[in-house]
């Protein structure tokens, strides 16, 4: 099953897969149509773009999350024009025993490599583009990359020496929300409570060091 909004790439994938002996019961151009087609046809492997109509944000990924809740769960190969680190992490975190792949669209140009990747995913394996792996490893080495944009804002204001009340006023949120963000920041930066450490100061130092 294929979900790709580009007609040329979609038809090209259909022709390529059929040339290698596979059957493609349906090829669609958006996420909701993909879910319906999978339920109807029950394919072994789904190849889906990350960004599809109507919003061209994460429609493909959201459709894949729905597919990962189906039983039996089809193997999934996600194609992306660019490296979407957050999307890749969500896809891999949601694995439910079925094969999973995250490939850049450039890899489709290497027919042998692409078909080998589809085969490994169909057999239950995991295939991730080497460049995606490199960036994911780099991201994980920097704990600040674990923070959400809002948590980064809170930490930046903390680095300016602002109190929780001042941070709340600057971001137009409640102090309770600020305290919740700070607790999350400390957890993500691996700063557990310790009698000899001021965790807030250590969090700020980590921010300034980065």
TrEMBL record:
Domain of life of the organism encoding this protein: Bacteria
Pfam families given in the database record: GerE (PF00196), Response_reg (PF00072)
Modified residues (4-aspartylphosphate): 49
Keyword DNA-binding in annotation: yes
Gene3D superfamilies recorded: 3.40.50.2300
Keyword annotations: DNA-binding, Phosphoprotein, Transcription, Transcription regulation
CDD domains named in the record: LuxR_C_like (cd06170), REC_NarL-like (cd17535)
Domain HTH luxR-type: start-end pairs: 140-205
Residues annotated as domain Response regulatory: 1-120
SUPFAM superfamilies assigned to the protein according to its UniProt record, in alphabetical order: C-terminal effector domain of the bipartite response regulators, CheY-like
Keyword Transcription appears in the UniProt entry: yes
Protein name: Response regulator transcription factor
Organism annotation: Streptomyces pactum
Species classification: Bacteria, Bacillati, Actinomycetota, Actinomycetes, Kitasatosporales
